[in-house]
Design goal:
The chain is an alpha/beta fold. It is built from 19 helices and eleven strands. It holds the Pfam family UPF0489.
Amino acid sequence: MPNTRNQMFSALLFLLGQNNNACCYFRWSFETRLSFHQTISAETFIKRCAREGGVSTGSNYVTMSCVPLKRSYKELPVWIVEDHHDVVGHIYRAIASRHLPLKNIKMIHLDSHPDLLIPVNMSADTVFDKEKLFSELSIENWIMPMVYAGHVSCVAWLHPYWAQQIREGEHRMAVGRDSSTTTIRVSSTDNYFLSDGLYLSEKQMENSKPLRLNVVKVNPVPPGHWSLTGRKPEEDTEGWFAKRPRPECSNAWGASCSEPLSGSVRLQPPAVGSNMSSLADDVDDSEGSTSYVVKRTSALLSETEPYVLDIDLDFFTCKNPFKELYTQEEYDILKELYNFRGPSPHADEEELDECVDRRVHQLEDLEAAFADLLEDDGEETVARWAGNPGMAPLAQLVSSLKLRTQCPDYEMVHQAGLTCDSVELPHHISTDEEIDRLISAMKLFLRALPIPTLITMSRSSLDEYCPVEQVDSVQSRVLAVLESLYGALDVNKDYENSSIETLDCQPKAS
């Protein structure tokens, strides 16, 4: 039996014969297993595949079904990480173990930030080198590389009312390779992508993959809704859930989903003197309501397809850590320096390309300026850069920073500036009551959706996007709700096993 990687691969492909679909699945399965450091012989590999399903063996042949058998976890796994991009490894392991499919994965993503940017200078081919990819990812850009790799095809970004970096509604776009730069780019013309210089027309892309993105606002359960409507919460939601069949939780993990839940959702209670009885009527269709969320997320899901439920704890309470690093005057100067001038509403291809080129040059100049200031922030250097078009406020910014600290961290200043384009980073430190109301809203819409295959969770506390004094409490409350919905959970606190150097932790643009 051949032992080397290439010999084993060639021998097994020969045994698989001419079944192209089978070979495609085999190639992924073989490469994925080896990529996770499982050294196995060809004979062991064949026997294992036969045992797990999808392969038949004979004395002189091996055949493989086109679609591998799905696998299910005994208990629903929850992987909790500190930095959000660390969930990618757990998603890849679920793909390797066939709990998630190789392609067309759906994701429900609860977060105050979209996390849909792209590593600007990363080669597109990096997505096929697992270790290199993981080293390139950051908290703001971990989803799109999985889209380009073909793993993820649908994302529902569920955001609280204080976060609106991407237009509400459904977006269809392509994610592909820019042949001129070999980097990954996206065809969406939303300012979120344009302001980072990530736009490229689909016709200019290579190896493009489709992405369906639903941007869905989630409003907290309003205070006193039970008394306002005069009805129990489960009565309010009964009709919503009846519109769409859903599996009982007991079918999967033995947990019942029949317990009463918190009330339906509306952003603000009605004004004094308004018609109280109208609340129950208009909540069903209002933006951010439970039925609104369910309709827009369930459009992406089927009862049988696996999907990932991803939760960032800053969805419930969120800080903009840069606001504490700089004065309001300094922050206003950063907004002026990094201001993004978008295209006209009905821009043609030429105008979009000009917009991207202009923005890329603007960001490159600012990055170069602050890199220069790291070496020498003397008057001559500052004056030289401030003389460039649009950079006059730089002198005032440097002067203000040097009044407060002898050696400003200009790299951090640039990171802060990158968040000051068309929309600021969200900043809303919730009270305990507000957190509970958002958790109740989450429980309501999750109750109406199919059970996820995998749950990933990010604390985002060391970089202070989720307030460190609140994160443990929020985490325990969210886990309690998930357990009430899905039964026993296999909770893995990956952040406890990570070697984290707190002093080196710095906030990044998101």
